[in-house]
DNA sequence: ACCAAGTATATGAGAGTTCAAGTAAATTGA
DNA sequence: TCAATTTACTTGAACTCTCATATACTTGGT
């Protein structure tokens, strides 16, 4: 009953797996090497740095940083140990926590950003034509809208 | 000096991260739920199952399964515990090891494959038009050829 | 006011990954 | 021929992630 992948689909699928893994590995290696953090942490810090007053509820932060709640909890615990994030109790909902980016945290991400952007360009944008970038954007938006939630 | 991402590039980049992460999470969840293995293990078993006599040198297997040598070593150790893979010493190069897919291992992957292929279709091929699939193939091939090695 | 159900987050255990270092065998080259 | 280098693979520790479970608070009926 299974509709197997034909030769073209196999090729596409394997190219997809290779390409996405290579990009992710390049990102992670660069960040780990130059900024001592995994990409997941970087995304958390970026999300916080863009929030008003650099503070956000944990659950919203999880959504923005594309993290599960559990992963975020663990990550923020580590980031707190480094002094990059602080947790405030939420006054209007006392179950809630608010993650706050500290000045040290902001400095850390400001220092990490240029190298990271360079790596993003090196591993993705620089190797594609403008048309390919446009196509990729649409493809990813479609996938995202379909699978999200 | 940093050339930051403009608004379009930001959108593309975030769509790319979301889409690829969603696909990978869907794959991993399906395999973990229905076949009790992570995607990385699945790729190792697939690579072995396609090899002549279902056996391959560790280093070549790492390349085919897109795994680091260290990851592969750990993974094969686990797969060996399950009785899905065996390790033979390599006669002509006694440093080498040859991973061999056992009958149980072959049965495991044969059982896992249909659900996995279904998930691949659900999360990628079914949501894209044929043109998009072709474009994605080219894009990923380009990225792959650039970053590989 | 009370209790059941739902929500927000944390926590712990188990598993996989990475990185650095370790072992063993092959190769190089003086 | 033998020391130095390189190659193949493994190992251990540190870290992150996932999943299941726990905790604390809130909400919606009754």
TrEMBL record, chains A, B:
Biological process annotations from GO: response to stress
Matches recorded under InterPro entries: HTH_MarR-typ (IPR000835), MarR/SlyA-like (IPR039422), WH-like_DNA-bd_sf (IPR036388), WH_DNA-bd_sf (IPR036390)
Coiled coil segments of this chain: none
PANTHER family for the chain: MARR FAMILY REGULATORY PROTEIN, TRANSCRIPTIONAL REGULATOR, MARR FAMILY
Name the UniProt record assigns to this protein: MarR family transcriptional regulator
Domain HTH marR-type: 1-145
Superkingdom classification of source: Bacteria
Record-level Gene Ontology MF annotations: DNA-binding transcription factor activity
